[in-house]
Amino acid sequence: MEYLFSVGIFAAIWAIVVLSLNVLLGYGGQVSLGHAALFGAGAYTAAVAMTRYELPFLVAILASLLVTAAIGAVIGLPSLRVKHDFLVLVTIGINFIFIGVVSYTDFLGGTLGIVGIPRPAIGGLVLDNWQYLLFCVLLLGLTMYATSRLPLTWGGLGLLSIRDDEEAAAAVGVNPARYKIVAFALAGAIAGVGGALYAPFVGNVSPGRFNFIESVTLMSMLIFGGLGTVRGAVFGAVVLKTLPELLRGFSEYRFAIYGAILLLGILFMPKGVMGRDTAFGRVIDGWIGRRKRPTLPAERTVEKGPAPPVRDSARATQHELVAANVIVDFGGLRALNDVTIRVRTGEILGLLGPNGAGKTTLFNAIVGAVPITKGQITFDGKEIQGLPPHRTVRRGVARTFQVVRPFPSMSVTGNVTAGLGMPIYPHTDAFVRFASEGSRKADAIVAEIGLDGQADVRTDALPVGLLRMLEVGRALATGADVLLLDEPAAGLTHAETEVLAAEIRRIADSGKAVVLVEHNMRFALGLCDRVVVLASGELIAEGAPDEVVKNPDVIAAYLGDEPI
Amino acid sequence: MIVALEIAVNTLTQGSVYVLTAIGLTMVYGLLGILHVAHAAVYTFGAWIGLISWQATGSFWLALLAGGAASGIAGIGIFEAVYRHIADRPKLVPLIASVGILIVASAIFEQPFMIGTRRLPFRPETGLPAIASDLVYIGPTGVALIIVAFVVILALFLIFRYTRLGLDWRALSMDAQMANALGIPARMSMNLAFFVGSFLAGLGGVLVAAYEGRVFAAMGDVVSYKAFIVVVLGGLGNVPGAVAAAFLLAFIESFVITVFGYVLPRDAIGFTLLIAVLMFRPQGLFARRA
Fold first, then answer.
1. CB 3.0–4.6 Å: which of A18, A200, B16, B162 could bond B149 by disulfide?
2. Average pLDDT for chain B
3. Quick one: DSSP state of residue A393?
4. Helix boundaries (H) for A277-388
5. Which residues from A are below 8 Å from B282, CB to CB?
6. How far is B47 from chain A (nearest CA, A)?
7. Is A151 within 8 Å of A296 (Cβ atoms)?
8. What are the residues whose beta carbons fall under 8 Å from the beta carbon of A405, sequence distance 6 or more?
9. Residue B194 burial (C-beta neighbours within 10 Å; 0-12, 13-18, 19+)
10. What is the pLDDT of residues A87-125, one digit of tens each?
11. What is d(CA B43, CA B198) in angstroms, rounded to the nearest whole number?
């Protein structure tokens, strides 16, 4: 019986640690194959707290949580510079460095580790295995609750958005750097709690237990159970931790089993046993859903009363975006040479020109996605050049992308909500208020772009025409006063184009300034108040649409000046 | 003077090990974009085959060839059975699969019918002379290691520079689709690349095992992580860069350990260097352009 209790305790601890990996990888999209280092950091913090400083168990848990969160934030720093494969290598490296540092630090007991950690006790009562199992399961439950609520908060939505598409996240005002660090710190905090539960139960810690193989084991538990879901993380950890313990005869094949699960799982069942969109997962969704389906603030249905005024044309203040004498160089290539455009509230400015003219580059320069060599970009007289994209959008200049970039794992409403702007530490009351206000706004925007029929559909299931509208809506949701739309009509049918044109006109009339990059001449000329034509990085014409099309330079740029 | 010589000898031997293991990794990354973690298993497999071949024939050079060939075939097997089918899936998928292969293989190596958990002695005669003077000593196996590494470097240089195959590899690593469109036989070239890269890993496995006088199941682990550091320092997919980085890493490790003593384990030095390079020069130390 005692043995079963201790198996249960290990399962609960590992489930907590795998949940922390799920926050990092499943929500934040940051791959770590060095997660055992965070687990170990938590265990060592608790061990040091309880032996060297003789702190009580509960204080040690708190200390582990804080210290490991801080370590997580520091470990997360490389993720700001490196991505994907490189980040994996960095995290593997961090695992080795952790072991190296611990092994060579006398204070941490060197290679032998720290022994004689007192049994966990609460208020003088030393917990027996049964009580400790209850305690661990309680903390696991708390962690499950917290991490399952996380995607429903604005901060969680920010994590999902950087996982889905960093650039698109920045375009709606989410600072990718900040959210990555938050993901690592949160993962650290949770893994730290797991470590703090582990060390006093086992009574000793040593560096070898938190090695790369342990990191791989944690990863295989998460992949096996179902990446990105709380139930998957817990299921994977509990099954893979208990099975080898219970089937003693197989214990020598334990790593072969882990490896095989990892290999076969990722090849044939990449969503895991209980992941999203799996048969098992749907059954469980069904059980929970009957009783209480958690809803994204964005998905919360509200009574369709009078839509709140998303925009207020009467009181719309006048705004002006000016990009003056902008020069952008890519290495030796001058992509933009001394280009000046200005656009005011209520105006639709068309940005035309053949492929390679520098239109998208101008957008990138305005929002700060590419650095400008020279020139000045001002919004309402204030300089905005040099600001990163996520700050530019908060100042009031939002952009869409030439190739649509929705957040594929979110619903239509979720995408729009992500644009609404997200305080990262929601105070409960303020959060609830903001959430309902936010969801009303989101619903209004979704209705306005004509997607209310698809509000709860995940965007990876939508055709490009609707996604174009969605991107406009998402940009609108940021509350920006200037919208930079990059070929919004590309890939649209004729009918869709007309709907889009009407919508863009409405947006402009309601008090926004719109800049439009477009290849569809009929669409652009019919819609724009004024057009600017770029060719080879130079501004070659500017004026009313019907004048500009007669301009011989423009005709030459499009058709060549040789007679055809 | 003695210190300098000691560093030079360590750099030469350790650098040769890194060259033999890292080239396969960097070629695989260049061609497929996969971090081939399972390369470590290929390396250990080569060493084991080398050991049994030596036990059977008593010839070191035959064992070396057998180990290389066995590893080469194992490499093709991994490509054909796993990587070929998942190269275009999200990057996490082939990586996790590769880790899975490594773990399964390591667990199999530890079974008694293969290497087991023991350290099997492997002390072959290479027939080469030792370099011995008052100041330095490199044993016959160390000499073999260095010679083979330099022959490999020269051979690779010739292949990449002067053969059709080298051109195909370079084209495939730049743009596989375009290379296919131009009639380059992608699958054949990939198979050859896996064979060559894994063959070298096998040579490395046999040579290191002979140099250290033993074969054990986990011998690939450290080397593979090290090889990754080399590959990144050299610039992922950059073969000449990997060769240079192999000796650079070996030099830095030997230098730090010889001059400052064991401030950190050898592995941690390499990984600290790796992270520093990734942070400040993610394209590697030897990339031609930023």
1. B16
2. 85
3. H
4. 279-291, 359-367
5. 81-82, 86
6. 20
7. yes
8. A165, A167, A168, A171, A471
9. buried
10. 888 898 899 889 988 988 889 988 899 999 999 999 888
11. 7
Mean pLDDT of B11-32: 88
| Tokens 């889009």, residue located | A500
- CATH assignment, A320-559: 3.40.50.300
| Poorest-pLDDT segment among A210-219, A452-461, A495-504, B46-55 | A452-461
**CA–CA gap between residue B240 and residue A248 (Å, rounded):** 49
What pTM, to 2 d.p., does this model score? 0.84
Residues 6+ apart with CB under 8 A from B149: B15, B16, B17, B19, B20
> How many C-beta atoms surround the C-beta of residue A314 within 10 A?
7
Contact A515, A431 (CB under 8 A): no
Q: Please report residues of B whose CB lies closer than 8 A to that of A88.
A: 35, 95
User: Given pLDDT bands bounded at 50, 70 and 90, which one contains residue B139?
Assistant: confident
pLDDT value of residue B79: 93
Instruction: Give the minimum alpha-carbon distance from A91 to chain B in angstroms, rounded to a whole number.
Output: 9
Structure-token match 């070298």, residue found: B200
Those residues with Cβ within 8 angstroms of residue B220's Cβ, 6 or more apart along the chain or in another chain: B39, B40, B41, B42, B43, B44, B106, B205
* B264 with A100: Cβ contact below 8 A: yes
Over range A5-12, report the average pLDDT.
Answer: 94
pLDDT band at A417 (very low <50, low <70, confident <90, very high): confident
Interface of A with B in 312-351 (CB under 8 A): none
**Residue A469 in tokens:** 């509208």
Residues of chain A contacting B267 with CB distance shorter than 8 Å: 96, 100
> Tens of pLDDT along A30-65?
988 899 999 999 999 999 999 999 999 999 999 999
Locate the domains of chain A by residue range: 2-213, 320-559
Helix (H, G, I), strand (E, B) or coil at B121: strand
CB contacts < 8 A, A to B, total 120
Residue B252: is it exposed, middle or buried by C-beta count within 10 angstroms (0-12/13-18/19+)? middle
> Residue length, chain B?
290
Helix (H, G, I), strand (E, B) or coil at A30: coil
